[in-house]
Amino acid sequence: MEFFDWFFAAVVERAPHSLQIETVRYLTGTILVFLLVWVIFERPLKNRKIRKATPRAKQIRREVSFSALSVFIFMLMGVFVYEGAAGGWFRFYSDVGDYGWSYLAFSIVALAVFHDAYFYWTHRLMHHPKLFRFFHATHHRSHNPTPFTAYSFDPSEAAVNYMFIPVFAIFVPLHDIATITYMWLMIVRNAAGHSGYELMPKGWTRNPLLDFFTTITHHDMHHEKMTGNYSLYFTWWDRLMGTEHATYLERFDKAVGATLATAEPSNGIPPVASPASLSRQ
Q1: Those residues with Cβ within 8 angstroms of residue 213's Cβ, 6 or more apart along the chain or in another chain
Q2: Exposed (0-12), middle (13-18) or buried (19+): which is 281, by Cβ within 10 Å?
Q3: SS3 sequence, the chain?
Q4: Per-residue pLDDT of the chain (281 residues; tens, 9 = 90+)
Q5: Cβ-defined contacts of 197-201 (< 8 Å, 24+)
Q6: Which of 106, 113, 116, 149 is the most buried (most CB within 10 A)?
Q7: Could you tell me if 215 and 207 are in contact, meaning their C-beta atoms sit under 8 angstroms apart?
Q8: CA distance 212 to 189
Q9: Chain centre to alpha carbon of residue 204
């Protein structure tokens, strides 16, 4: 009871500020990507639309509704992290001089690498048939995603997704600037990753200096196929574990208007659930 009393008091004190931060971040990131990709540059990007079908307004309303719930969960998690940092549970710091600017920049890169691994394995675990309906089904109702799919989660998945920050900060010192910068980059990348338009240039997946970064097509195929392509920022884990779709390069080239010399066979990754059953509006 002491923990709940403490946490309730912390929520009452911190909730308004934390809720404002999470709401502004979600709305800014998703609306920015929506306006740029779906409105302002819609005509120049029309040939880069990954799938012909356009999601209905009803889907977007559902995504925004579940995203509001995710924002609430993130607010609660944010309060917990803030109070935990004040109590010394997590290694956050505010004086750049403690470690220097070089370390601050390095910590952002290290956080991205850790987050990618964390996301791959928790994401893949949530696709287990016994866990899928409790953690990940809501996100996959957006069979053809939009920028607003970025936070469209079950509350349980929202909590799991947020936990990478405190888990990382248990072991690695994180400056406030690094944390805030990463969270903003994450929502913009997440919204873009669900935009339905391939934004990377031709040849991206053929360039050895770039091909380890995931593309929009990479995650879009995950929503379409309901399995495979579990990675977030990098293709490393999918390629190491054999979960990248064999037709990924072909699909990317098609999205950017390039020509693939030979079509690669499907890797036969079985679907976890019927897309039709989860994409009903």
Answers
A1: 204, 233, 234, 235
A2: exposed
A3: CHHHHHHHHHHHHHHHHHHHHHHHHHHHHHHHHHHHHHHHCCCCCHHHECCCCCCCHHHHHHHHHHHHHHHHHHHHHHHHHHHHHHCCCCCEECCHHHCCHHHHHHHHHHHHHHHHHHHHHHHHHHCCCCCHHHHCHHHHCCCCCCHHHHHCCCHHHHHHHHCHHHHHHHHCCEEHHHHHHHHHHHHHHHHHHCCCECCCCCCHHHCCCCCCECCHHHHHHHHHHCCCCCCCCECHHHHHHCCCCCCHHHHHHHHHCCCCCCCCCCCCCCCCCCHHHHCCC
A4: 676 676 677 777 778 888 999 999 999 999 999 999 999 999 999 999 999 999 999 999 999 999 999 999 999 988 888 888 888 899 999 999 999 999 999 999 999 999 999 999 999 999 999 999 999 999 999 999 999 999 999 999 999 999 999 999 999 999 999 999 999 999 999 999 999 999 999 999 999 999 999 999 999 999 999 999 999 999 999 999 999 999 999 999 999 997 654 444 445 554 444 444 444 44
A5: 197/37, 197/45, 197/48, 197/49, 197/50, 198/48, 198/50, 198/252, 198/255, 198/256, 199/37, 199/45, 199/48, 200/252, 200/256, 201/256
A6: 149
A7: no
A8: 16
A9: 20
- Hey, what are 241's tokens? 């574990």
Tokens standing for residue 243: 């979960």
Q: Which residue has the tokens 């995950």?
A: 222
Residue 156, both tokens: 């349980």
